[in-house]
Structures are given as structure tokens and as C-alpha cells.
Write a structure and sequence with these properties.
By secondary structure, the chain is mainly alpha-helical. It has helices at about 1-20, 20-50, 85-90, and strands spanning about 65-70, 75-80. It has 2 domains: about 1-50, no CATH class; about 60-90, no CATH class.
Length: about 90
């Protein structure tokens, strides 16, 4: 019971201090809000791009990117549907 009273007193003291320093409170709240928003965005992006399998692809580990370089130093990319079909053509 004594610990709860001490915590309540600390919280009330902190709120009193925050009420006196309005600029500090505004900066602290904006910084926390921006940090939470950026963190949520990054984790959502990582989940969507890296962790969720591609729709319509049964075996995503078989996907490949093949690049060909010509003498003019231009690069063209093709994305085959399966690596066995590509090696059969070569």
C-alpha cells in the first residue's frame, strides 16, 4: 500500500511539472507521437514486403531475376515463371 501511494505521488508530481512547462510537454508529446508513427510504419512495411508471401505464387522460393547485359551497356530484366522452363530454353 505504501508503494502505491509513492507511485501516485510521483505521477501527480510529474503531471504538475508537465503542466507548468507547456513547451516541453508539447515537444515530448510530438516526439513520442512521431516515434510511434514511424515505428508502426516500418513494422507494417516489413510485414507486408518481407514476411507476407506473394499472392498467386505457390513456391516463392523458386522465383528468379535474370538480367542480360548487351554491349551498349543497357540492362534488360525478365522474370520467368519457373527456373526449369528458363534452363530448358538455354
Amino acid at each position: 500500500m505504501v508503494a502505491m501511494t509513492a507511485i501516485l505521488k510521483d505521477v501527480l508530481f510529474g503531471l504538475r511539472i508537465l503542466r507548468r512547462n507547456k513547451w516541453f510537454t508539447a515537444v515530448a508529446v510530438l516526439t513520442l507521437g512521431l516515434g510511434i508513427a514511424v515505428n508502426t510504419t516500418v513494422f507494417s512495411w516489413i510485414h507486408t514486403v518481407l514476411l507476407t508471401p506473394l499472392p498467386g505464387v505457390a513456391d516463392s522460393h523458386e522465383l528468379a531475376l535474370i538480367e542480360t547485359v548487351t554491349r551498349a551497356a543497357s540492362t534488360s530484366s525478365t522474370r520467368p515463371t519457373s527456373t526449369t522452363a528458363t534452363t530448358a530454353r538455354i
